[in-house]
Amino acid sequence: MAKPYNRYTIIRYIIDAPVVGISYLVASRFNSGQSIISTDRYTLFFTLVSLALWYIAASFTRLYADRRSNKYSEEIIFIIYTIILFTILLSSASFFLRDYIKFSPDFFPYYLLVLFSLLTLTKYIVRKNVHSAIFQGKLLDNVLIVGCTPAALDFYETINKYYYYGYKCLGFLDNQQGKLNGCAYLGPVDNLSILLKEKRIDEVVIALPESEADEIQFCVEVCDFYSTKARIIPNLHQYATASIQVNNIGLMPIINVRELPLDKKENQILKAFFDIIFSICFFIFIGWWILPLIALAIKITSRGPIIFKQERWGLNNQQIICYKFRTMVSESSDIDENGFYRQTSKQDPRITRLGMFLRKTNMDELPQFWNVLLGNMSVVGPRPHPTPLNLESMHTVENYMLRHMVKPGISGWAQVNGYRGETKVPGSMQRRINFDLYYIHRWTFWLDCQIILQTIINIIRGDQNAY
Predict the structure, then answer these.
(1) Angstrom distance (rounded) from CA 394 to CA 378
(2) Cα angle vertex 418, ends 323, 284, to 5°?
(3) Which of 84, 71, 181, 79 lies closest to 127 in space, CA to CA?
(4) Of 173, 196, 417, 419, which cross-links 432 as Cys (Cβ 3.0–4.6 Å)?
C-alpha cells in the first residue's frame, strides 16, 4: 500500500498551503477592508512567511503522522496543538515585520478561527476519502501473522473489526497447526521466505512466545532479506504496574520500566488545576441552566429523588459517594435474587423514558462535576464502578485494582472507545480495564483534551453502548 497511500500523504501536506493562504487573505479582508486578493508585496511576503512557519510548527507537532487508525478527535487535538505553536511563531514574525505591515487587534483571532475551521474541514474530507478507499480495497496492507498466540488472535480480531486500520490478513504461520478465528493457516514458520518471495506481503507481524527466541530471530532476518516491514508483538503483561518505554543503547534495545506520568507532582498539579477550571466553567456557562431543567424534568416525569447517590471506589480504593441524575424508577434494586450486582442491560425495565435519554447522551453524569470540585473525581479518568461490581471483578479480572491508582473520571479512555455499559460478555470487562491501564500509563494533558472532545462528539451523536 506504500505508493497509493503516499499520494494521500502528499495531499495532506499540499492542501494545507492554500488553506493557510486563504485563511490569511480572508483575515486580511476583515483587518483592512481591502479586496481579499491583494498584490501588496508585504502581504504576499507575510503569506509566504506564514506558510513556512506553519510547516515548521507541523513538523514539531507531527501533524502529518499517519493517524488512520486513530479517532478524528485526536487529529483535531493535534490541529489545535499545531495552531498554538504556529501562533507563537507568527507573533514573533509579525513583531520583526512591524515596520512593514500593520495588523489590527482582531486580525489574529480572525486568522486563527478561519484557519482552524478550514483545517478541520479539509482534513475530515481527506480522512473520509482515505477510509472510503480502504473500504473499497484500494488502500490495504497485506499482512502475514507469525504465531498462533492470544496476542496474534487479538491483533487479527482488531484489524478485522476496524477496517479503517487498512490491514488485510492473508493468513498465519505456526509450527503447530491451530485455529485463529477463521484466519487461513499457511504452514510452519519455515514457509515465511517462500511466502515473501511469491506473494505481495507489506508487513509481517511476529506474535511468537518469548520462549521461541530463535524463531523470532529467523523471522526478522528473513524480513530483512526481502526488505519487508516486520513488527513484533511483545508479551509485556508482567510489567503492567508501570509505564514502559523502549529505546536503544547502542544497537541493543532496552525496556525502561518507569514511573507513571501522574506520579509526577507537576502533572498532578496540572491535572488538578485543569479539573477545577473546567468544572467552574461548566457551572458558569452550562450547569446553571441545564441542571435545573433536567432536575425539573425528572421530578415531573417520575416519583422519587432527583439525585441518585451511589458508593463507589476512588483513588487508592477509597470509598466515595458518586452523584448522578436518577434514571431508574425509585423502587429498583441493584442486587438480583442471587445476591449479585445487577448491571444495566438493554431495554432494562428499571430505566425511565427520560432516564433512557439521559443515559444515551451521558447527561445523567453531569452532577459529577460536583465530585470533581470536591476533589474525589477528575474530569477524565477510569470510570468508577459500584462497590458490588468491584468486589465481583477484583478476583476475576487481571490487574483490575490497578485502575484505582488515579482518580476516577466523569469520562474515560475506555468509554470513548466503546467500552461502556454492560460487561457480561466474556472478556468485555478485561478489555475495559486494558483501556483504563493504557490511559494511566500514557497520560498526557493532550490525551485528556482528546477524550473530552470525543465525549462531546458522543453526546451529540448518541452512544450506542449507553443504556
Answers:
(1) 22
(2) 40
(3) 71
(4) 419
Show the cell assigned to 353.
Answer: 423514558
* pLDDT score for 122: 94
- Dig out the grid coordinates for 19 from the structure: 488553506
Give the alpha-carbon dihedral of 248, 254, 259, 264, to 10 degrees. -10
Grid coordinates representing 76? 483535531
Cell numbers at residue 459, please?
453526546
Describe the crossing of helices 288-301 and 353-360 by its angle, rounded to 10 degrees: 150
Q: Give the pLDDT means over successive 10-residue stretches in the chain (467 positions).
A: 67 90 82 50 80 94 84 90 94 81 79 94 90 82 90 87 84 88 90 92 90 89 92 66 62 68 92 96 95 95 91 92 91 68 73 89 93 96 90 87 93 88 71 91 93 89 63
Q: Structural domain boundaries of the chain?
A: 2-135, 141-235, 265-461
Range list of H helices, 239-319? 265-282, 288-301
**Distance from C-alpha of 439 to C-alpha of 406, rounded to nearest angstrom:** 10
Question: Are 435 and 414 contacting, i.e. CB atoms less than 8 angstroms apart?
Answer: yes
The fold of 141-235 is: Rossmann fold (3.40.50)
> What is the pLDDT, as a whole number, of residue 337?
66
| Residues 403 and 437: beta-carbon distance below 8 Å | yes
What does pTM read for this prediction?
A: 0.78
Residue 449: name the closest of 89, 155, 76, 99 by CA. Answer: 76
Identify which of 3, 8, 148 has the alpha carbon closest to the alpha carbon of residue 68. 8
Cβ within 8 Å of residue 430, ≥6 positions away = 397, 398
Contact 268, 262 (CB under 8 A): yes
Between the alpha carbon of residue 264 and those of residues 9, 267, 270, 381, the distances in Å are 37, 5, 10, 16
Burial of 120-137, coded b for 16+ CB within 10 Å and e otherwise, reads eebbeeebeebeebbeee
**Nearest alpha carbon to residue 318 among 376, 388, 400:** 376
The pLDDT of residue 121 is: 94
Helix or strand or coil: residue 116? helix
